Amino acid sequence: MNETAAQQSSLTLANVMTRLSTISQGDVISLGAVNIVGVGHSAAWNSTAQHEGLAEIEPGEEVWSLSIESDVGWYVVITQDCDIARSPQIEPCLVVCPVKYVPCRDWQALASGPRSPRYFPLPDDKFPGMDGKLPIADLRFLTSVDKTALLHPSVKVLHPLSAPQRANFGRCVGSRYARVPHPDKLEQDVLPKAATLIRKLAKKYAAGDTSDPEVRLVGAARGWYLGGNDKRVVFIPMISEATAKASGLWNTTTGDFDKKSIESGQKRLRNQLLASLPAGAGYACSVEPRTLHSTSAADLLEWSEWIVEEIRETL
After folding, report:
1. What is the pLDDT of residue 313?
2. What is the pTM of this model?
3. Which of these CATH numbers, 1.10.730, 3.30.300, 3.40.50, 1.25.40, describes 184-305?
């Protein structure tokens, strides 16, 4: 390599490193496409080719490839911060996933219900609305973007996540590949039914039907944990001052949580969860809302984050 080429290469690297210093996990960039390779008919073809208007193409026995664009041209950065900051010689690419828009009720079900390992609800106030829909990160489809592509003048970067949201997104990415398994009977008999009920309440909240305290309690949840054992399940919705205010669970007179409404929501939600469980199977449950301020490190080590393996609704 001659001196001029070496200088240009050094300048390019310096510019890339400067650009990378402005990007963190959970940020959104306006570049990239998800490439899917397969053969014959597949679920990936059905869920993407139809969206792209390619359904009339009949995939045969030859290997085919689809490039899937985001609904709005934005992609969420999956790569962890340390690897983002590393030189392209060590970590040459960023891993990203597409931003997708879903109906408000499905967004609320993801935001207020147990965590999905496949979808992450992005802040609804940081992206423009799209025909009554809200944005999510679709972790089912990942691709790599060469770091040098970030120097193109068309590339833009958004920083939609707050520090707590960024940490929550990191946990979501981690749970995609390292989620804690629950006992088979619990996964089969209890948790899917409970998740269906909670998502139903979350959709009522999204629709503005907030007269029932259990609906407001679910609407205030931003993450769920599980405690107890395989016969007595403790459902732990994590709420905050901000979500309590937004969902009508805040007493403006006392400047504190509306304990009466929260306790009523606990009892009503517990009764509905019990009614959804298999009769005569000996299961018991309780609902115990918590805040981060009322949660110890020992609690978090004992509990497991509630991650639902299936979303029955098609997003």
Report:
1. 45
2. 0.69
3. 3.30.300
